[in-house]
Structure formats: structure tokens, C-alpha cells
Amino acid sequence: MSPAYPWVMPRRIAHLAAASLLVAAGLLGVASPSHAAPLGTVYGGDPFRSTAGGRCTVSFTVVGGFLTTRQCASRVGDVVYTPGGERLGQVAAVGPATADYAFVRLDAGWTPVGRIRAGGTLIAVTGATPAAVGAAVCRYGSTTGWRCGTLLAKNVTVHFAGGVVYGLTRTNVCSEPGDAGGPFMAGGQAQGMTSGGSGNCTTGGATYFQPVAVPLAALGLTLLTSPAPA
């Protein structure tokens, strides 16, 4: 299966070059000491920037940090920033080239919360039970917001411009640049991280996600959850 997915690799290279120029110009700082004072909270769905992937979206928060996709945080040690240029933390672990996940460890002072921040709404992540084929799923991205559709197939092999990724889940939910890494949900259950796809949210398309169970198990991480609304 070979989706067009025209917006991953070309934009990734462009973002890397742009971020490098910002660092050189002193507009994005290089690694700095961790802060001790409270800095803020981090939720799934929040936008962030890194030197490896440009603007992306936090997938899900875990103890000590958050998950995102490999294309957004491909090198251990890369510094990750808020959209305004404030340091969030560093990439602590990256999955193999045949998977699409990474773990960012937050600097002291940032607090990860087990919810999705979707615009002005906070949505509780109550667990990570996988949805069945045919189930309704929704994803949040920092470019296109909430988009919903149907889970079409699991354990799909996808040939992206940067290489082959195995074990993805295919949906008919649309996505666009900047949505990469965003959380896929089925009700309150975490499903996975937006990996890529074809089309856009004007004409429609297909989007694939990396199941969240893979990095949780591979890296020994604990998903942060919150109680469901009463």
C-alpha cells in the first residue's frame, strides 16, 4: 500500500532547515538547564516544535513526558519547544525506523496531564482499550482540530516517502501538515498517534496511526489518564 502522503518528508526537511536557521539566529535556544519553577501544563493535542520535525502535535501524556511520532522527534537529545520558543524538554527515546513513535521527557517545571486539550475543551483520557475495525474514531491535530471517521483496518504496512512502516492502523479520517503526532481516540480510550496519510480535509483522504500500545510496551511507559466526566 503506497499512500501519496505528500506532506511528510518535503515539509520535514523544510522545517529542519528553518529550525536550524532559528537556532543559529538565536531565536530558538539550544539546550538549556532544566527549570525548577512551575512552567505550565502539557496535554495531548498541544502543538510543539522541534529541530527534527517542525510543528507537530503532542499525542498522549505519560509519566515524565509525552508521546509523539518519530517524524516529529527523530533524534535522541533533540530539544523540544513550545510554539513560542520556550523549552519543553528533550527527546529521550525513538522507535525503530519501521515504527513511528518517540518519547519526549519534559523538563522540570512542566506537568503532563492525562487529558486532550482540544481548543478550549479538555477531554479525559480514561484508558487505552483498542477499538475494533468498524468503530468510530476521532483525532485531534493542531492544524485541523477534531476530525472523525471509521477505523478501517489494522496491522497495515505503509510505504511512506521516508521508508516502510509496519503495524499501522488505517482510517478514513482526514489530516493535514501539523496534525502529525496528534491523538486518535475512540470515546475516552487512547488509540494511537497520527502518522500520515493522503488527501486533505477539503477533499477527504486516509490517515494512518501508530497504535499507542506499541510505544507504551516497548519503552515501559505509563499512560496518564483522568476520570471520565460524571
UniProtKB/TrEMBL annotation:
It holds the Pfam family Trypsin. The keyword Isomerase does not apply. Disulfide bonds join 56-72, 138-148, 174-201. GO terms for molecular function: serine-type endopeptidase activity. Keywords: Disulfide bond, Hydrolase, Protease, Serine protease, Signal. InterPro entries: Pept_S1A_streptogrisin, Peptidase_S1_PA, Peptidase_S1_PA_chymotrypsin, Trypsin_dom. Residues 1-36 form the signal peptide. Residues 56-213 form the Peptidase S1 domain. GO terms for biological process: proteolysis. Belongs to the peptidase S1 family. This is Peptidase S1 domain-containing protein.
